[in-house]
Amino acid sequence: MEERKVRWGILATGGIAAAFAADLVDLPDAEIAAVASRRRESAQAFAERFGAERAYGDWESLAADPDIDVVYVATPHSAHRAAAGLCLEAGRNVLCEKPFTLNLRETEELVALAREHDRFLMEAMWMYCNPLVRRLKALVDDGAIGEVRTVQADFGLAGPFPPAHRLRDPALGGGALLDLGVYPVSFAQLLLGEPDAVAGSALLSPEGVDLQTGAVLSWESGAMAALHCSIVGGTGGTASVTGSRGRIDVPSGFFHPERFVLHRDGSEPEEFAAGPADGPRTTLRHEAAEVMRALRAGEKESPLVPLEGSLAVMRTLDAVRERIGVRYPGDAVAVTV
Questions:
Q1: I need a surface site. Which of 18, 116, 128, 166 has the fewest CB within 10 A?
Q2: What does pTM read for this prediction?
Q3: Which of 129, 130, 133 shows the shortest CA–CA distance to 260?
Q4: Percent of the chain beyond pLDDT 90?
């Protein structure tokens, strides 16, 4: 693999799969070898659009393809456990879209499968691979703003989404928390680790999913995070990290920022901006590049998106859902591939 392109399989053909494939095409050491959908016509159209050699009308054929180095799972998150599990059991390495699964149990099952079959597994938390987010974390870790006191982050879409939409469907893991809230939670835990206490409140839909949720995470250090997500109101999508000696403000789109501002006590504000190659459309390529780096190094997980970190985020999301009273059909039933 060190001397040739990394051969990708794309499982699913929706919008996020297309965005990821578009960035893969721009990476000289990546190749889209195959694509799979439950509809062969959809797979064939996707393959023709992005230059994939093979198109499959079922997941099993992609998982069994021995000429694929890694599979990108881009299904709705309600199908992540089944799709990623199928690929891991077939011996494929996997990059799985976020949120990793519907619940902690399913994530634990995927991690166990990856370790059992000695395969690489990573959640596609592209925010963690973003160069500017990595720079922000490095500044915080280096004490640029002192000890972290508070984290604030929000992500909301205006909607409205009709009851039949996937974001309103409990069977598809609908609601604001898993689809959007995973970003504020992941941002807070990137900087502070897993919280010691979780509180939450939500507005629920008639179907039983959260239309908007507020969560407060707290740590024994005294640090707190105030987080919000919504599918009934478009928010600014901003984030702020306040420390004992300063603050970092991230404007709209904190999970793929174009810039952020560091305010050190007693100093003029410092702006950090993304490079020319790090615009919003190309940010997915950073996670792809990290996967390929790890595979070539023989690593089974990424230090940028470690499995324990993904497990910790799922524990928090489960805790928030318990507080707000949202349950999915898959919470109570064992998943079979």
A1: 116
A2: 0.94
A3: 133
A4: 92
